[in-house]
Amino acid sequence: MAVAPALADTTWRALQLQGRVVSALILRETRTRFGQSKIGYLWALLEPVLHMAGLSVIYLLMLRQPLTGTSVILFFLTGIIPFFLFYKTAIQAGNAISANKALLHLALVKHLDVIIARAILELATVLVVFGVLMMFLRAFDQFGNTEFDLVILAQATALMWLTGLGVGSINAVLSTLIKSWSMIFGIVTRPLYLMSGVFFLAERLPPSLAQYFGWNPILHGVEFFRSGVYPGYGRAFIDMWYVIGWAVIPLVVGLAFMRLMRRQISAKIGSG
């Protein structure tokens, strides 16, 4: 009868230990990524601003009205944020093992710890940037009569982050075993920016394009995120089970792949 409480206590202690390790890794990643120069924190904010500004200028020069709502800038922001959440999480998590080889020689630090730490830092960074930019938009009266559905925004954020974490965990293994994998992934996925609804409405795509673009899970995720800002938007296009599948399956595959290849990863780290 005492086995179950003992097992629960051991599990809880293990989770507490992993939590402390991941917290320490997040602090280290924050200092490494943002703390070495003053531009570090500023660039996290400037990058989406530059994307929004560039897209807005191009769009306004074409003398076109907002695709939906009253603000072109808000429309682009609601496309850039979920896309960045997926893409940057996949990139940062994908480089986690290869960038932390020295730490992985420590017995307490596991492969999954460095991946989770980078993914959480990316989530926090994107959320802070989103919050700051939304405050600026509110200050300049860019919301109009927009009503935000925080539940949908939270769900879409979680799904895009989990998709990035899952793809990133697979990338983390592949980039450790294949030196050029990070570069290959970056090149192959670069067109996603043009195909994920950052600057267009999926429901207005010609049927001949919609049937192909519909295979892109990030497009569904962006549409779902926007539906939390523009009520009723994108519902005819969004396939929620498809989005959920891409949030869960790559993560399961990545964890299984990491466990299956753990000896090869350790050998690569040791030889590096």
Chart the SSEs and their pairings.
Elements (H helix, E strand, L loop, with lengths): L2 H32 L4 H23 L10 H23 L1 H4 L11 H29 L10 H28 L3 H9 L2 H4 L11 H7 L3 H11 L12 H21 L1 H10 L1
Concise summary:
The protein is 74% helix and 0% strand. The protein is mainly alpha-helical.
Structural commentary:
It is a single chain. The protein has 272 residues and is mainly alpha-helical. It contains twelve helices and no strands. The protein has helices at 3-34, 39-61, 72-94, 96-99, 111-139, 150-177, 181-189, 192-195, 207-213, 217-227, 240-260, 262-271. Helix 2 packs across helix 5 (111-139) and helix 3 (72-94) runs parallel beside helix 6. The longest helix has 32 residues, at 3-34. The protein starts with a helix and ends with a helix.
Radius of gyration: 20 Å
Assign the structural class, choosing from mainly alpha, mainly beta, alpha/beta, alpha+beta, or little secondary structure.
Answer: mainly alpha
From the N-terminal CA to the C-terminal CA, the straight-line distance is 48 Å
- How much β-strand is present in the residues? under 5%
